[in-house]
Amino acid sequence: MPLWTPLSRSRFPHERAALEYLRERFPDREPYRAWSNLEFTGLDGSMNEVDLLLVTPRGFFLVEIKHWGGDISGDQSTWYRRENGRDYTVDNPLSLANTKAKRLKSLLQEQRRVFAGRAQLPFIEPVIFLSNESARTHLPPIYDGKVFLRDEISDQVAVSQLFKLDASGPNRRPPIDRPTSSAIAKALDKIGLRPAPSVVKVGQLVLGDLLYDDHGYQDYEAVQEGFSGLVRRVRVFTRGRQDEPDERRIRERAARREFKLLHDLHHPNIVRATEYHDHELGPTVVFEHVKGAQRLDANAASRSGTAGPRPAQN
Predict the structure, then answer these.
(1) pTM of the model
(2) What three-state secondary structure class fits 67?
């Protein structure tokens, strides 16, 4: 079995370059293993695209790649980025990565037979790789070991040292050996990892970046096929694999109610719903997408000054 397994080719050039950068520096020996550019469906029906899964002697990692440049700061809810004189506000990407890690662990825990005996399912640690060479971080110490810059991963020694969990204290975990690494590979094969799709469509809209992920729904940026300048926000009310029929009906009613309310509402500060679809992923509502728009909670945090430190302006 190859130790680095690309399930598909990323559609983003910067992501392909970042994965190749890591692959060239990743040790080609047991118990190291990697799976890149993959997708899995959570027990809650959510779609979860993952840039990279890494197994090293020091841990099991879910890696999200961000090609953000400039100065990056923030707190546990919101991150700020200043690049080329412009300011950007984004949700803390570790929160989404952590959600994906928990969903993946729930799937792997169903493979009890694989992890019987000495091989135990390790903790899945979410980390962020900032692949842009111009990125500079101004993050609190709690993000040490969770956010990596490109120049921190210079060779195989750096990879083996960086991707590690705390080996001391009451929460220390045993190192991952060859049997455990092999068990992880078997379990991932059984849960049905699949290539990250090149295109997912809702009507004539092609889904792009995941904008927000909450219990019960996921928001995506989407572009009208054939019209690159026509951008929409698509909200998918996910169908869980273990949902009871009543739960599905409740979720469908919620989606229809949201569409009806926001389709008929016209307000300069509230985005309008424009379409409703019964999609295979779940009931789906399409919204106008206003560039620079923020969720109400993020806007309130930025206005109140509670969203954390910003990088110093030169």
Answers:
(1) 0.77
(2) coil
Confidence label for 151 from pLDDT (cuts 50, 70 and 90) = confident
Closest CA to 119 of 33, 54, 182, 60: 182
Sequence-ordered list of residues with C-beta below 8 angstroms from that of 6, at least 6 positions apart, any chain: 19, 35, 36, 37
Distance, CA of 23 to CA of 174 (rounded, Å) = 25
CA–CA separation, 226 and 204 (whole Å): 9
CA angle 28, 123, 189 (to 5 degrees): 60
Contact call for residues 219 and 212 (beta carbons, < 8 A): yes
Distance between CA atoms of 76 and 139, rounded to whole angstroms? Answer: 10
Q: Mind listing the domains of the chain with CATH numbers?
A: 4-195 (no CATH), 201-299 (3.30.200.20)
Place of tokens 């970042």: 18
Helix (H, G, I), strand (E, B) or coil at 188: helix
Other beta carbons within 10 angstroms of residue 304's beta carbon come to 8
Q: Is residue 310's pLDDT more than 50?
A: no
Residue environment code for 235-248, b if the CB has 16+ CB neighbours within 10 A, otherwise e: bbbbbbeebeeeeb
Report residue 301 as tokens: 């945090």
Q: Is residue 39 a contact partner of residue 69, using CB atoms and an 8 Å limit?
A: no
pLDDT for residue 44? 85
Taking a C-beta distance cutoff of 8 angstroms, is the pair 92, 199 a contact?
no
Residues 210-269: pLDDT tens digits?
888 877 888 988 998 888 788 999 999 987 766 778 888 888 999 999 999 999 888 888
Please answer whether residues 87 and 81 qualify as being in contact, where contact means their C-beta atoms are separated by less than 8 angstroms: yes
CB 205 within 8 A of CB 223: yes
- 53-81 tens-digit pLDDT: 999 988 999 999 999 999 999 988 889 98
Q: Cβ–Cβ contacts within 10 Å for residue 280, how many?
A: 9
**Tokens at residue 186, please?**
């078997």
End-to-end CA distance of the chain: 51
**Distance separating alpha carbons of residues 105 and 123, to the nearest angstrom:** 8
